[in-house]
Predict the 3D structure of the following.
Amino acid sequence: MPYSPAHPYLPIIYSDTVAVTFPAVHHLGQQNTGQPDGTFAPNSRGRQGIGRCSELDRRSHRPHGHDFHVAFTFHATGLLHPGVVVDADMRAEILDHLDSRYAYQDLNLLLPATEQPTCANIAAHLARWHYRSARITPHAYLHTVVVTTGSGDRGQIVNPPPPQLASADQQPHPWTSP
């Protein structure tokens, strides 16, 4: 592992970002309650609200679209040949997943029923996908996932470094529990 000449106790960390923009829709303010049509369920403020498929929902929670910009940032202590952190296969896997699963989709239906399609929840969902399903690279790890929209909304998930790079006071990895 190479170390910084200015700070010999700190390893050199290389960084690379895979960024993509995709259009998607969500329903403004819609509670994904899983309740039958027209039943009452608590909303985000603790008040009783109408379930997700009532006539009131259909009128007031129209689909609303954004261009979502997603940036996966990877850190590594070494580089692959010819001097990259993220190779073309890894980049293609991320781009294909976002294009096939998220582009032109209703995000209320893609995320778990307990999560609203906010930028922070989308970032957490993508980080979990990468941790569970993407090709593992021994030299690099996913450091951050940032999701932004053109309207200024932003969500970010910071992934702790792997054990060989973590200090003793780091928290355990958030997605290692079953």
